[in-house]
Design brief:
The protein is an alpha+beta fold. The protein has nine helices and 27 strands. The protein folds into four domains: 77 residues, Histidine-containing Protein, Chain: A; 70 residues, Roll (SH3 type barrels), CATH 2.30.30.40; 63 residues, SH3 Domains (SH3 type barrels); 144 residues, endopeptidase domain like (from Nostoc punctiforme) (endopeptidase fold (from Nostoc punctiforme)). The strands form eight sheets. The protein has a six-stranded antiparallel beta sheet with strand order 21-26-22-23-24-25. A five-stranded antiparallel beta sheet has the order 9-8-7-4-10.
């Protein structure tokens, strides 16, 4: 009987201990969620994925983050609570990539996926010559971060890994920007000879030399080739002379008319609605957020009355589900206002084409008019998420 009482007592103590452990873990998870909401609210651009495991007489922290500040705040909070813990959280980039914490896209378009697999969803794309941050490695895939801070995975065949010195040299080098929709880099100054690769709108390579007809260029993996001068420009000169206006937004947007829709696409080979917006603004000298749900949080709010009267050519129109008492607003589509007597806008849906908000027009888009959420203006607005590429050139000089 005495032995039974001892066993019951031990079980009760274990129960209380387990209950306390569960409560502690739940409290830590709640605290971590608060830190995440402040420092890494959007996992597309910042990672803070932390788990807690009760291990003997202490708590094991594991997971990964790109925010050292957020992790420091979490550990300080644990120490203030006098909790014993072991920190196994990876701060990316780490030893998985070593000194090769940078890369440059070496194919005309690189497909960047949500997971480290060729079958994973296409998240975004990168263009030839684009500089990238490298955060992690999983088999033949690297987790990278694009200039708009989008985090996803790309296979090793699409990038040239670089250390800090090499990426600085690449970024500082003179470039050639491809301005035609599609074309090729040739092995010789003869378009009838062999082709090194294709290249599409927005691709960049290192400038080596030029003559009357060709630019000689170098890839990030040191391949050499030639681009027809009619298809490209000196990047620095292009950017310095670039004047981004409402009309230039319209001109570039219409240049892409007919481009096919591709979920996750941000290139001439295929683009989704927000990828189209990105390309239009990139060719006007700006890096902007990747997705429509991010783009709506940037710039100046216009057309608050939703009547299209206060819009200017180049403004972004957002569409989706309006907020209700039980659900938040959901942005699912975006287009560019063209501003004329036909109330036209251009967007990627099926392909890039022009639609109208005027029900008297043959290309009236009733569905999108009914789900119109509002508009934002980017041109002329100061916003840290609208990166003017001219400021980068100024810093280099």
């Amino acid at each position: 009987m005495k032995f039974l009482k001892i066993v019951v007592c031990l079980i009760f103590i274990a129960f209380i201990s387990c209950k306390n452990d569960v409560q502690t873990i739940e409290a830590l998870e709640k605290m971590t969620l608060g830190i995440k909401q402040e420092y890494a609210p959007d996992k597309r651009v910042e990672l803070f994925d932390i788990q807690f495991i009760q291990k003997n007489n202490h708590i094991l922290l594991q997971g990964e983050t790109t925010s050292r500040n957020a992790l420091t705040i979490l550990m300080d909070s644990l120490q203030k609570r006098n909790l014993k813990f072991e920190n196994n959280v990876r701060v990316l980039p780490d030893s998985a990539v070593g000194n090769f914490q940078f890369a440059v896209a070496k194919n005309s378009v690189i497909n960047i996926r949500s997971e480290a697999s060729h079958s994973a969803e296409l998240g975004t794309q990168g263009l030839l010559g684009m500089s990238l941050k490298v955060l992690d490695k999983n088999g033949d895939f690297y987790r990278i971060q694009t200039p708009d801070n989008y985090i996803s995975w790309v296979d090793k065949g699409g990038i040239q890994l670089m250390n800090e010195a090499e990426i600085k040299q690449w970024d500082a080098s003179k470039k050639v920007l491809f301005t035609a929709l599609f074309g090729f880099v040739y092995a010789q100054k003869d378009i009838e000879k062999s082709i090194i690769s294709d290249i599409s709108l927005g691709g960049m390579l290192q400038y080596i030399a030029e003559d009357a007809q060709f630019y000689q260029v170098k890839y990030p993996d040191n391949r050499m080739g030639f681009i027809k001068k009619n298809d490209a420009v000196n990047y620095d000169s292009w950017l310095k002379n670039l004047i981004s206006t409402n009309e230039s937004i319209e001109k570039i947007a219409k240049k892409m008319a007919g481009f096919p829709y591709l979920w996750g696409g941000t290139s001439a080979k295929g683009m989704d609605c927000s990828g189209f917006i990105k390309m239009v603004y990139l060719m006007n000298g700006f890096i902007i957020p990747r997705d429509a749900s991010q783009q709506i949080n940037v710039g100046k709010t216009v057309d608050e009355n939703l009547n299209f009267l206060d819009l200017q050519k180049g403004d972004l129109l957002f569409f989706g589900k309006k907020a209700t008492e039980n659900s938040k607003q959901k942005v699912t589509h975006v287009g560019i206002w063209l501003g004329n007597d036909k109330q036209e806008f251009i967007h990627a849906s099926g392909n890039v084409h022009i639609s109208s908000m005027d029900k008297t027009q043959p290309h009236f888009d009733e569905m999108n008019k009914n789900r119109y959420l509002g508009s934002k203006r980017y041109l002329g607005e100061k916003d840290p998420q609208i990166i003017d590429l001219k400021t980068i050139i100024d810093l280099k000089e």
